[in-house]
Design brief:
This protein is mainly α and 149 residues long. It contains five helices and four strands; from the N terminus they run βαβααβαβα. Helix content is 45%, strand content 11%. One of its GO terms (biological process) is threonine biosynthetic process.
């Protein structure tokens, strides 16, 4: 039952940490400095936060660390790193240790990289795309102008 889905698409704005992760296997905060820190439209005066999150026209996606991503990492680690044990408790503990290590690296070093098998497992179910504020405005305009009737 349910809707057959082959892949879930992660749609991101210019705060594209998940898009970059799926491209490279590295989940890394991307600090924004100088002229590149300007965000949004010129007339709205939006600027980037000092910690690297850019203000965009899609504010619900103006985040640097995705909490749901941690859950995905746990499930993938559970599947990949627990192949040689039948103990459900040991599988859960191994997955937890892997995710804890990645999260520690994120907090300490600003990012972490996963092994190819982890990235491949995630890519099997997910793809990602990013859009700019200009693309967002264009899409909203095009949908608004779409012929009605």
């Amino acid at each position: 039952m349910g809707l057959p889905v082959s892949k879930l698409i992660i749609a991101r704005n210019e705060n594209d940490i998940l898009h970059r992760f799926l491209q490279t296997g590295t989940y890394e905060k991307n600090p924004v400095h100088g002229a590149a820190a300007a965000g949004g439209l010129v007339q709205d005066g939006a600027t980037a936060h000092p910690e690297g999150v850019k203000e965009t026209l899609s504010p619900s996606m103006d985040i640097l660390v995705s909490s749901n991503f941690e859950r995905l990492l746990w499930f993938v680690a559970h599947d990949i790193y627990s192949l040689n044990t039948n103990s459900a408790q040991e599988k859960r503990e191994r997955a937890g240790r892997n995710v804890k290590e990645w999260q520690t690296q994120l907090k300490t070093n600003g990012g972490f990289s996963v092994e190819k098998q982890v990235l491949d497992a995630i890519r099997a179910d997910f793809a990602a795309e990013r859009v700019s504020d200009v693309e967002t405005i264009t899409t909203i305009r095009d949908v608004y102008r779409w012929p009605k009737g």
